[in-house]
Write a structure and sequence with these properties.
- By secondary structure, the protein is of the alpha/beta class.
- The chain has two domains: 221 residues, Rossmann fold, CATH 3.40.50; 305 residues, UDP-N-acetylmuramoyl-L-alanine:D-glutamate ligase.
- Helix content is 42%, strand content 15%.
- The radius of gyration is 26 Å and the shape is elongated.
- The protein starts with a helix and ends with a helix.
- Bound molecules: ligand LP7C6HRI and potassium ion (K).
- GO terms for molecular function: ADP-dependent NAD(P)H-hydrate dehydratase activity; ATP binding; metal ion binding; NAD(P)HX epimerase activity.
- Homotetramer.
- Belongs to the NnrE/AIBP family. In the C-terminal section; belongs to the NnrD/CARKD family.
Length: 540
């Protein structure tokens, strides 16, 4: 994997970034030289963006008191010398030394400086936001906060340097107020705050500007196993499509059991089955209430449909597997979509078995009712839970806030339950009990529709069953950035790749059919085209 692809997987906190930077400076790189380098890279990217888009006219450069402002001033100077119209506004009374020098030079070469943000807004066509970066420490109040609100009310396109000014580098929280950017160009390494759901409304289109941080410095600060990673296409390419030996048979390619559906939620069973089918799993068995069997057979003729006794309301009342089959015959079992709470005895039974389990929807609600921690700590096999924030709160009332502190909460939940926990959201986060958290960095709100999660459960179940059957699934989470892969796929990496695949299918469907066109059934048709494209990329 080349350098750029490796660093795209790394996520850092403000402190870690400062420590990495500190090593670079201690090794002899002058601070001013790094700012110069970064500023020029940003200027180059701006010129590319101006040419590629309809953004035109005078660039208004917002300059803050620290080195984020310094970066912005290097950009102003570079654009000025390249013949672009540029103006600056630096509405502060004190600046850091390097920033002061750049400000003085910018004025000396004739770059127009406006005293107020109103004036800048009146004379410019696009804005470059260099007010604050990772040094923002306090809530923004007074004239700075007012200026940011005025900037947001203007309809000018905004490019934020490093972070939209006002966002907390780690939590992504707007500290009082924050710039609502159209583009955010994160410097050097991805900052955690940019991967938080709550930050998304401020970030716009995010990309990383690489400025050659040595991998050795990243490794020295983060250790061999960084605790947060971005799920990138590279992880998917390393995992998908799951390799098959030339001589094999269906049971060697994984046998997945889905337990899902009820009279009330019949469609959920079909969607889960279609998600599983797209995973390529060798054998797919689907346990549903007896009365749903004809429906499922018609939709999934390739699956073995197991009709189970049902309650008066049409939920599975007990699991009735075919003769000579028991739960241990499956490589993985995914349970939950559309079950209703009446299926409690079945979920209870499945939780006691010694197979890898994926629990979703009513599977999670039933687990919460049974007692999450006491139930899961009795399990010897692996468990993956896939809650959204509401289910998470019911499962883990003491693990922190799955809305306000998603990363902290999911990490705590995995640690106390010994399960892999996938917290759904705009930036789905996947935590392994050993502390690793993966974040899926791209998705679309088009996926916020009934049945979308059922597709994910089936897809993930199919991938896990195949890896389990091939015996190349590792229990411990390992982060592969700094090591050669040993060809073992970790359970949290598979769950992460499933989330990535699911959201990429959503993005693809949205681009063909608009944000309204990504119903869960349609989504299932977009799963395999995502992998076909990966294969093309991977073979290049
Ligand atoms: N990461 C790198 O290797 C590089 C980073 N660069 C850029 O530098 C900034 C970080 O610079 P720093 O000076 O540390 O912080 P800021 O520019 O974000 O601003 C801090 C500045 O603002 C004052 N301040 C903090 N909070 C408030 C507040 N609420 N109200 C008013 N003033 C506030 C604080 O006292 C400081 O003076 C990074 O993001 C990059 O853009 C380098 O240029 C290249 C290498
Ligand atoms: K900024």
């Amino acid at each position: 994997m080349d350098r750029q692809k490796k660093i795209e997987q790394v996520v850092v906190s403000a402190q870690q970034m400062r420590d990495i930077e500190g090593r670079i400076f201690a090794a002899g790189m002058p601070v001013a030289a790094l700012m110069e380098k970064v500023g020029r890279l940003i200027a180059h990217r701006i010129v590319e963006t101006l040419h590629a888009t309809s953004l035109r006219g005078c660039a208004g450069i917002l300059v803050g008191p620290g080195h984020n402002g310094g970066d912005a001033l290097v950009v102003a100077r570079e654009l000025h010398f390249q013949g672009y119209q540029v103006a600056i506004c630096a509405p502060f009374s004190k600046f850091k030394e390097l920033t002061t020098s750049h400000l003085q030079y910018a004025e000396s070469i004739g770059i127009r400086r406006y005293d107020s943000v109103e004036e800048l807004l009146a004379h410019c066509d696009i804005l470059i936001d260099g007010l604050f970066g990772l040094g923002l420490e306090r809530h923004l109040t007074g004239s700075v906060a007012t200026a940011i609100d005025q900037i947001n009310q203007s309809s000018l396109p905004i490019i934020s340097i490093d972070l939209p000014s006002g966002l907390h580098t780690d939590t992504g929280e707007a500290l009082g107020t924050a710039i609502r950017a159209n583009y955010t160009w994160c410097l050097g390494l991805w900052k955690l705050g940019l991967l938080q759901d709550r930050a998304l409304e401020y970030i716009g289109n995010a990309e990383l500007i690489d400025f050659d941080i040595p991998l050795a410095d990243i490794q020295a600060v983060l250790g061999d196993a960084p605790s947060i990673g971005r799920v990138t296409k590279e992880l998917a390419i390393a995992t998908l499509p799951l390799r098959r030996p030339p001589v094999t048979h269906k049971y060697k390619q994984g046998h997945l059991l889905l337990i899902c559906g009820s009279f009330r939620y019949a469609g959920g069973a079909i969607l889960t089955g279609l998600g599983a089918r797209a995973s390529g799993v060798g054998m797919l068995s689907i346990a549903v209430p007896e009365s749903l069997k004809p429906l499922l057979v018609a939709q999934l003729p390739d699956a073995l449909i197991v009709g189970c006794p049902e309650t008066a309301a049409g939920a599975i009342s007990s699991l009735q597997l075919p003769e000579n089959t028991d739960l241990n015959d499956f490589d993985a079992i995914a349970v939950g979509p559309g079950l209703t709470i009446e299926a409690t005895p079945t979920v209870e039974q499945v939780l006691k078995c010694d197979r890898t389990l994926i629990l979703d929807a009513d599977g999670l609600n039933i687990l919460a009712k049974l007692g999450t921690i006491p139930t899961l700590t009795q399990r010897s096999a692996k468990t993956i839970l896939t809650p959204h924030a509401g289910e998470f709160k019911r499962l883990f009332p003491d693990a922190g806030d799955p809305v306000g502190d998603r990363i902290g909460a999911v990490k705590a939940a995995a640690s106390i339950s010994n399960a892999v926990v996938l917290l759904k959201g705009a930036r789905t986060a996947i935590a392994h009990p050993t502390g690793m958290v993966w974040i899926n960095p791209e998705s679309t709100p088009a996926l916020a529709r009934g049945g979308s999660g059922d597709v994910l459960t089936g897809l993930m179940g199919g991938l896990i069953a195949q890896a389990q059957a091939a015996e190349n699934i590792a229990i411990d989470s390992t982060f592969e950035i700094f090591k050669q892969s040993d060809r073992q796929i970790t359970i949290d990496a598979i769950a992460s790749v499933a989330a990535w695949w699911h959201s990429q299918a959503g993005i693809k469907a949205e681009s063909d059919r608009s944000v309204m066109g990504v119903d869960a059934f349609t989504l299932t048709h977009y799963l395999l085209p995502v992998v076909s494209e990966l294969r093309l990329v991977g073979s290049n």
